[in-house]
Amino acid sequence: MSPTRTVINGIFGKMGQEVLNAVTLDPETQVVGAVARSTDIPEIALPDGSGNVPVLASLVEMASSTKPDVIVDFTSAESARAAFLAAASEGIHFVTGTSGFTSDDLDNMNTVALDKGIGAIFAPNFALGAILLMHLAESVVPHAEFTEIVEMHHNKKSDAPSGTAMATAERMLKVRGKDFDQQITETSNLEGARGGSYGGISIHSIRLPGLMAHQEIIFGLAGQTLTLRHDTINRECYMPGVLLAIKRVLGTKGLTVGLESFMGLKSIS
After folding, report:
1. Inter-CA distances, 156 with 127, 152, 178, Å
2. How would you class 90 by CB atoms within 10 Å of its CB: exposed for 0-12, middle for 13-18, buried for 19 or more?
3. Same domain (yes/no): 150, 197
4. What domain range includes position 13?
5. Are residues 239 and 117 in the same domain?
6. Within a 10 A sphere around the Cβ of 16, how many other Cβ atoms?
7. Is the domain of 223 the same as that of 244?
8. What's the rounded mean pLDDT across residues 74-102?
């Protein structure tokens, strides 16, 4: 079987560079081109020394010239929306982990992908450990009335709460079928001290230098607590999930949210 031909959108970002390395080194995938807002550098060297691939500002032009099977996107929500529509117009499968999509965005992606006969995957988090964390949290939900989420990221992250924290809360609420009980303090000495509230779940966001991406889910039960935690040490942890998505999206139609179905994980909701 020929390697899956891949174009990377957002090549000069930190995630774009990690994807370039992972896709190049995997024998089942092949980087054939890259897209960036700035094209001062017309081509980029492959990390295995096998050659260079072109870099263009236009995704449509890149798709037309390189004929990829999949476009992988790690940019911004605005750029990713445009990239998806460009991919769909060319009949190319699409994988993204960009945060900031709304539920309407995802509904539209599914509709367009089905209409164009392509597969698309959006994963709030490509780290397999983070996906397992959310799966484990679902199994705890029937046994706990109270829960809070603490998510911690590097100080350059532009949004809060993280997409993973929101996805975790949404999945837990779907299992529970109603809001969680939430401890409301009688007196607030500082606005926002209890974090943001979503369905009775307090979500706390920390942004500091020295952090990468971390999440704790703390469940409160009578006389005890249960804490689930995932820590991202570096961006390499996302690559097994990205590669899994690139390889599996070819066999899908419409939008798939998350990688759980490809990992054999079944929701308990």
Report:
1. 19, 12, 34
2. middle
3. yes
4. 4-122+235-262
5. yes
6. 21
7. no
8. 94
- What is the tally of structural domains in the chain? 2
Whether residues 93 and 199 share a domain: the answer is no
Q: Which of 67, 93, 116, 157 is catalytic?
A: 157
- Predicted model pTM: 0.87
pLDDT at 85: 97
253 is a catalytic site residue: no
Closest CA to 121 of 30, 235, 247: 247
Exactly one of 93, 153, 204, 214 is catalytic; name it: 153
200 torsion bin: left (phi>0), alpha (psi -120 to 50), beta (else):
left
Q: How much is the pLDDT for 269?
A: 65
Q: Are residues 12 and 108 in the same domain?
A: yes
Assess whether 153 carries a catalytic annotation: yes
Q: Identify the pLDDT of residue 128.
A: 96
